[in-house]
Amino acid sequence: MKSEKTWNQHVVKKENKFLVFKTVIQSSPISRAEIATKTGLNKGTVSSLVNELIEEKFIYESGPGESSGGRRPVMLLFNETAGYSIGINIGVNYLLGVLTDLNGNIHLEKQININSQSFEVWQEKLFSMIHNIIQSTPKSPYGIIGIGVGVPGTVNMDGKVLLAPNLSWKNIELQSILEEEFKIPTIIENEANAGAYGEKKYGVGKDSNHLIYVSVGIGIGVGMILNGQLYKGNNGFSGELGHMSINVKGDLCRCGNEGCWELYASEQALIQQAKKLNLLSADQTDLSFEYLLDLAENGNEKAIYLFNRIGEYLGVGLNNIINIFNPQEIVIGNRMASTKKWIQTSLESQLADRIQFFQEDDLQIKFSNLSSYSAALGVSAFSTENFLQFSIH
Prior knowledge:
The chain has helices at 2-27, 32-39, 43-55, 119-135, 174-182, 191-202, 262-265, 267-276, 289-297, 301-325, 340-354, 373-391, and strands at 30-31, 59-64, 74-78, 84-90, 94-101, 106-113, 144-151, 154-155, 161-164, 169-172, 186-190, 211-216, 220-226, 229-231, 329-333, 364-367. By secondary structure, it is an alpha/beta fold. Helix 11 (340-354) links the parallel strand 15 and strand 16. Helix 6 (191-202) crosses helix 12. The two termini are 22 Å apart.
């Protein structure tokens, strides 16, 4: 009985300590007295828990705050540089890495283009990037506290990439491979799920409890925040809406299905259509998203038409999503978000023709300001939250 009572006291203390810590994060700078008021804990408990958090370097004291009549209180702040997290976004043709502090601020970033589907090539580049980031990380009490990786494919609960069709990856034990190399806790997540979380935490989705994030890159992935929580489905495989059929007798997709949405509304669709219009100039060796973006910026009517067409097909798929989920907000993310001025009108026109009137109430369509950073920030946040949850005790 005594051991059970001791265990219960330990659990209560841990919960109270985490509550105090969260209050400092949310309201920093804040005094001990204000923490007691906000949490409902007595001042003695707050003072004891604060002292532990200071000793563990998670919070620190600053100069006195404003007085309400008596002695000026010492203010407490979150030590956001107590440790750092690495967030990686694996695009189909690029690798983006960021180093963030415990508050999600980016301190370092690296990006490289990769034109290969070989996992061995990607592994070598991934290892090199992470080693490089680790070597460049400022000194801190806890160092690198975690690595998060967003992958454009289906990931199981054990961090295994079951299928990433646009990379031709199948059954890759990515979490095990990275943890063996770096000896650092690692989280592998679907890129769109990570992007949805990144938008909810740091982007245009902060105020939405029913958020659909549509990552439009070489393929299309969808992440869902439902009732304020990331929805992953029964086995973590939700959000593969880039592979819903919008054309029954359409082209064959790399996933094995026909007429998938991403064959009509993604970067690969844009490039395929550009080839048909012969948009390659004499001094250009290969069509790319960046090249077509540059053409559109310079007023090329064919390129602008292609982006308009992408917008139309995005509208078709979004109508299906709206009918299924009745979201509060849809965020268009990844690199296609930067083409808003060409795709927004045609996207909204398609929705206007298809959407049912009652679905329009309170629905917002937004474009991400984070671009391809949404996923990197999202997985970095997962790692940070895991670390803090288990470290505050």
